[in-house]
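In this section we walk through a basic example: taking a raw amino acid sequence and producing a predicted 3D structure, encoded as C-alpha cells. The instruction is simple. Fold the sequence below.
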Amino acid sequence: MHEVYQAMEQMFSCGLYSSYSSAFQYIDTSNLTKIEALNLNIYQATSLKNLQDFHRAESVYHNVLQLMKQLTAKQKSRSENNESLYQNENEIKYSLYECYVALGQTNAAINQLQNIPPKHRDKKVYHALGSLYSKTGLDHPASAAYKEVLKECPLALDAIVALLKLGMSTKEIQDIAASGGKLPTSESTWYHSYINTQATLYGKDFKACVKECRNLEDKQEFQGCVDVLLTCGLAHAYAGEYEEARILLQRAYSNDNFLFQGMDTLASILYRTNKVAELESHSAKLMNTSDQRAESWVAIGYYCHLNKNFKRAVYFAHKACQIDPRNIEALLLKGNIFLDLKKYRDATNHFREALQLAPYRLEAHQGIVECYIGSQRHREAANAATEACKQFNNSPRALTLYATALLKEPLVIGRAKPLLERAAETGYLPAVYLLVDLLEREGAQEKAVAYIKKNLEHETSGRLYQMLGDLLLKQGKEAEAMEQFSLALSMNPQDDLALAGLQRIEAANDGVGGVGLEASYDLEMTEVASNNESSMVGVVVSGGGGGSEGSGGGIPGSRGRGIVSPSPGSRVGGDLGEDSETEAVWSDGDLNIIGGS
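The resulting C-alpha cell sequence is shown next.
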C-alpha cells in the first residue's frame, strides 16, 4: 500500500472532507493499484456529497461506476473487488440517488434505485423507492415498497403512516408486521395503539383518534409524549376544534422546542383565531430555529396574511412550497390568499392539489366551495359541498358547508334549513349562527330568540349574546337587548356589532329620557375594561364581531371573508406600511408572484 494512499485514506476517515477534496486534485493515481485508485475516487465523491457539492459529486460517482465496469471486465472475481472497495456498485447507485434528491431530480433518483437488482435491494432502498413513488403519485408501487420495509422493520413508523395514507387498512398492516416475526412482544401494546391512532386520524374518524390518544397518554410511561400530543392536537385541528388543538400543539412544542411537524397547523389555528401576538412569536421562533423548513415559512406567511400583507404572504407561502411541494398548510395558505384576492382560478388549483394530497382536510373542500361561490357558480359549489359530505360522513362541519352553498341559491334555500338543524343539534356554533340568521330571514324572530336562549344554556358565546341582543332590540325590548349586548362586550370589548347595538339604543332614547342611559353605559364599559385590562392581550373576534368561540368561529372553521374580522383598533387593521419585528428581517425581494399560481 502506497504511503500517499494511506495518508489520503486517513484524512478521509477523519472527516476532513474539504481538505481531502483539495488534495485529491494533486494525487497521481497512475502509481497506485486499480483498487486504490478507485477507492480514492469514491472517497472524493463522498467528500463532495458531504460538502453538499452535489453536481460535482454526481459527476465523480458516474466516473466511479465506469471504472468499476472496466475493472470487473478485466478481473474474474467481482466479489474480491467488492471486498476491497469502500463502496460496492449498489451503494454507489444509492449515493447517486441522494445527490439527485438533493438536486430535485426525482425521476433520475428513481432510475438509479430501479437499476439496483431486486435481490440486492435492502430496506433502505425500498424505503427510498416508496418515498419517491409517493411523491410522483405512483401509489401501487409505493405501497409495495413500504410493505417490504415493514416485513423486516415493523417499527418503521413512517412506513406505517405512509401505508395508511395510501389507504391500507389497520389489519393489513398488522398482518404484514406480524408476518416477519420481528415485532418485539414487549412493544406490542403501544404499537397497536399507535397504528389505531394514525388509522383513525387519516381515516377521518377524529373523535376515535382523540380517544385513542387519551388512552395512550393515561399510561404513565407516555404522559407528555410529544408524538401523542401532536397526533391528538392534529385530530382536534382536522375536526375544526381549534381551541383544543391549539392547547395540545403548544404543549407538544413546549416539550420539544425543536419540533417542526404540526407547527404549520398551529400557525394556521392562530391565524384563524386572530391571535396576532402569539402568531408573531411562533413564527419568529420557528424561523430562528431553521429557515430550511417549510413550516417556518408557512408560519410567517400566515402572520403576513393576518396583517393583510398579501404580497409577502404569497411569497412566503411560495417559498414553503419550493422547500416541500407536498406541504398541505402551504397549499391551503396560497389558496386562501388567492381567494381573498378574488383570483379564483389560482385558488382553486391550490385547493385541488391540497385535496389530492390530503383528502382528510375539510379545509380543502371548503376552499373549492368558496371559490365556486365567489365565481357565482352556485350549482358547482353545491356539488363540491355534497362530495365533502360524502367524504366526511355528514359531519356537522360538512353539513354546514353544504348549507352555506345552498343559502347562496334562492331557489334551494329551503333545503339548507334541515341540514343546519341537524348540524346545530351537535352544538356546532357556525351551524347555530346560520340557522338563527335563516330563522330571522323567515320572520320567525320568536323562534330564533328561543333557539338562542336554549343554546346559551349549554355554551356561552359572545356572538350568540350579540345576535340575541339584535333580535330583542327589533322586538322593542331595549332593556333586555342592552343586557345581552353588555354580556357580549364582557367577552369581547371590541365587538363592533354589540357596540353598534348599544349605540342604537342610546340614539333611540335621546330626547326621551335617555340621559341616564349614557352614564349607565359608560360606567358599565369602565367595569368591563377594568376586568379585562390585565388579561386581554389579543382578542378573538368571531363571526363578524362575536366573542371568542373556542372551537372555531368560521363557516365551517374558516377565518376571513366576513367570518372572523379583525377589529379596527387592533394591529391587524393598523398601519400596514410598517414592518413588524418578525417581517423586518426579510427584504421584499422579488415578490411578483401574485400574478401566478
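Looking at the output, two observations stand out. Residues 337 and 343 are 9 Å apart (CA to CA). The radius of gyration is 30 Å. In the next section we compare this with other chains.
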